[in-house]
Specification:
Helices cover 35% and strands 12% of the residues. It is an alpha/beta fold. The protein has a single domain, classed as Metal-dependent hydrolases (TIM Barrel). Strands 1-2-3-4-5-6-7-8 form an 8-stranded parallel sheet, with helices on both faces. The chain is globular, with a radius of gyration of 18 Å. It binds (1E,3Z)-4-hydroxybuta-1,3-diene-1,2,4-tricarboxylic acid (0GY).
Length: 294
C-alpha cells in the first residue's frame, strides 16, 4: 500500500436543491492530516489528507449547517483526527468513535465531553479483520449510561447472521447505508424486505439513506436507488438520516459529485415535511437532543 488515494471530487457542483435551514450532514469523515494524525498500521487503504477545513468548506458550499463525523477505519481506534475536527467546528460537529474494547469508562466520558455520541461496529471484512461480537455487546452496555447509540456497518448478505447480535444491543442502533441493500431488487426486493423486518422489530433502529454512489452502479441520477429508498424514507420518516459520506473512503472510480448527491435528496424525501425530518429534525434528536424542544 504505497499510493495515497484521493476519493473525493475536486470541484463539486453547487446543488440546485436548497436544503432546509439547520441541515445536518450525518455521515462524513476526515482523514488526517497524516503528519499530525497518522493512519493506523492496520489501515486497509491510505488516503490523502481530507481535513476539517475541507469538510467545513464543503458543508458551507452545499448549504448544510452541521456534521456528524464518523471515525473512518483507516484511523483505527485512535479517534484524534475525528476529535480534532469536532474541536474545530464551533459546536457544529459531533462524532461517532471506534473504540478498543478495553477502553476505560473514564476515557468514554472524555470522548463524550469531546462531542462523541456513539460507537461504530464495522463488519466489512475488506475494512477490518476483526469484529468481535461479544466485545461489541459489552461496549454497547457500557455506553448506555452516556445515552449513546451504536452505528453498525454491514452488507446485506450478513443481516440474517447478525440478527441475534443486533437484538442484544441495549441502545439505539443506526445502520450505515441501510446495510447496503441491492437496490436493483427494488423497494420490495429481499434486501429491503429484510431491512424493513429489522426496523419493524424495534422502534429504536435508525438508518442512513446514504450512498447512491456505492449502492447503485448505474450512476447519476441513481434511479434504482431513488426507487428503492423513497418508500423507506416515507414509511420510517422519524428514523432516517442523510449524509454525503465525504470524502467517500475507498472510492476510486465513480467518485460522486457532492452537489449531485444533494440534488438526489428530493427524490428520496419527496415532500418538504420529509426533507425537514431527514435533514434536520431526526439528526438533531439523535445528536443534539439538548437543542430540541419537544
Ligand atoms: C463509509 C464506507 C466505507 C469506509 C469506511 O471507515 C471506513 O473506512 O466507512 C467503505 O469503504 O464502504 O461509510 O465511509
Amino acid at each position: 500500500m504505497s499510493e495515497r488515494i484521493i476519493s473525493w471530487h475536486n470541484n463539486p457542483s453547487k446543488p440546485r436543491f436548497v436544503v432546509p435551514a439547520g441541515a445536518v450532514d450525518a455521515h462524513c469523515h476526515v482523514f488526517g492530516p497524516m503528519t499530525q494524525f497518522p493512519f493506523s498500521a492496520k489501515a486497509k487503504y491510505l488516503p490523502e489528507d481530507a481535513t476539517p477545513e475541507m469538510l467545513f468548506a464543503l458543508r458551507d458550499q452545499l448549504g448544510f449547517s452541521r456534521n456528524v463525523i464518523v471515525q473512518a477505519s483507516c484511523h483505527g481506534t485512535d479517534n484524534s483526527a475525528t476529535l480534532n475536527a469536532i474541536a474545530g467546528s464551533n459546536g457544529m460537529a459531533r462524532g461517532i468513535a471506534v473504540v478498543d474494547p478495553e477502553i476505560g469508562n473514564d476515557q468514554l466520558a472524555v470522548l463524550h465531553d469531546s462531542g462523541i455520541r456513539g460507537v461504530r461496529f464495522n463488519f466489512l471484512k475488506r475494512l477490518l479483520e476483526n469484529a468481535p461480537k461479544d466485545k461489541f455487546i459489552e461496549i454497547a452496555h457500557r455506553i448506555e449510561p452516556l445515552a449513546w447509540h451504536v452505528v453498525v456497518y454491514f452488507e446485506a448478505d450478513l443481516l440474517t447472521e447478525l440478527r441475534s447480535f443486533l437484538d442484544a444491543i441495549p441502545v439505539p442502533i443506526v445502520i450505515d447505508h441501510m446495510g447496503r441493500p441491492d437496490v436493483i431488487q427494488g423497494p420490495e426486493g429481499p434486501d429491503i424486505c429484510a431491512l424493513r423486518d429489522l426496523l419493524d422489530s424495534r422502534e429504536d433502529i435508525w438508518f442512513k439513506a446514504t450512498c447512491p454512489d456505492r449502492l447503485d452502479a448505474s450512476g447519476p441520477p441513481w434511479d434504482d436507488f431513488a426507487n428503492a429508498v423513497a418508500p423507506l424514507v416515507a414509511d420510517y420518516s422519524d428514523r432516517c438520516l442523510w449524509g454525503t459520506d465525504w470524502p467517500h473512503p475507498n472510492m476510486q472510480t465513480a467518485i460522486p459529485d457532492d452537489g449531485n448527491l444533494v440534488d438526489m435528496i428530493p427524490r428520496i424525501a419527496t415532500t418538504k415535511a420529509l426533507q425537514q425530518k431527514l435533514l434536520v429534525d431526526n439528526p438533531m434528536r439523535l445528536y443534539w437532543p439538548e437543542e430540541v424542544q419537544e
